[in-house]
């Protein structure tokens, strides 16, 4: 797995049962439950974790939380702290799958570092799986230096007809986008769907609502929705990933979109 590549994702929610029903209907997820968490599955393979809202990160609502791959967690923690990142939790163990630590970057976005105990990759090549992630923030100046120092990512501007799109690269490979938006900084997750129009209709029918209608972007045809408890996520009907020779600075979404 490439440094900085999304390695895992969690959904924090106040109602696991209702949340599971929504995502089962939308993405055909199944679930392996324990007392404290659920693991969403497709074809028996893990897709994400679902956790009850504990309020530990102070978000106060349902939200997605991204984990980025690192080869050496201790080193990444030290580098993040030296470049104005705040270590909010960890290092600690995640269900025996990885060693993790939660970080707030200099622009205020919260994410976790993930050093896996195994070589398994997150399932990303099927409908209903995490297919892309974006760092969304109002102030972008500190992003290249922080993610470069902490994780080893490079920043670049991609180009498609009439559009520009910032990306973070690992060894020349795009692993995430960077979007300018006048909102609280956060990491945004996109899940693959084969037909965006049908997926939006389904999401609305089962209690979600559309935040931003479909737009053509550098990564495909996308839209933003909220699930029944308010968690914001993107739906993506992929075309091809952005190239780094390379829409606008906020990927076609309203610059005032809030988390």
UniProtKB/TrEMBL annotation:
SUPFAM superfamilies: Glyoxalase/Bleomycin resistance protein/Dihydroxybiphenyl dioxygenase. InterPro entries: Anthracycline_SecMetBiosynth, Glyas_Bleomycin-R_OHBP_Dase, Glyas_Fos-R_dOase_dom, VOC_core. PANTHER family: GB|AAF24581.1, GLYOXALASE-RELATED. Transmembrane segments: none annotated. Residues 237-259 are annotated as: Disordered. This is VOC domain-containing protein. Pfam families: Glyoxalase. It comes from the Bacteria. Residues 5-116, 129-238 form the VOC domain.
């Amino acid at each position: 797995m490439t440094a900085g590549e999304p390695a895992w994702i969690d959904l924090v929610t106040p109602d696991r049962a209702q949340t599971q029903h929504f995502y089962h209907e939308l993405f055909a997820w199944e679930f392996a439950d324990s007392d404290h968490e659920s693991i969403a599955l497709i074809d028996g393979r893990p897709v994400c974790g679902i956790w009850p809202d504990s309020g530990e990160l102070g978000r106060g609502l349902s939200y997605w939380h991204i984990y980025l791959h690192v080869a050496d967690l201790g080193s990444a923690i030290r580098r993040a702290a030296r470049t104005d990142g705040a270590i909010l939790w960890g290092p600690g163990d995640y269900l025996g799958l990885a060693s993790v630590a939660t970080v707030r970057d200099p622009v205020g976005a919260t994410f976790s570092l993930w050093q896996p105990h195994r070589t398994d990759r997150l399932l990303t090549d099927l409908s209903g799986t995490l297919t892309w992630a974006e760092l969304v923030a109002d102030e972008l100046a500190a992003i290249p230096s922080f993610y470069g120092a902490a994780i080893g990512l490079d920043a670049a501007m991609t180009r498609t007809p009439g559009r520009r799109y910032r990306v973070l690269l690992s060894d020349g490979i795009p692993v995430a986008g960077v979007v300018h938006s006048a909102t609280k900084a956060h990491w945004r997750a996109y899940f693959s769907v084969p037909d965006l129009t049908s997926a939006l209709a389904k999401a609305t029918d089962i209690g979600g609502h559309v935040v931003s209608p479909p737009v053509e972007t550098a990564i495909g045809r996308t839209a933003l929705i909220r699930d029944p408890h308010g968690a914001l996520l993107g739906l993506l009907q992929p075309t091809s990933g952005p190239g780094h020779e390379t829409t606008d600075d906020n990927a076609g979404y309203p610059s005032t979109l809030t988390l």
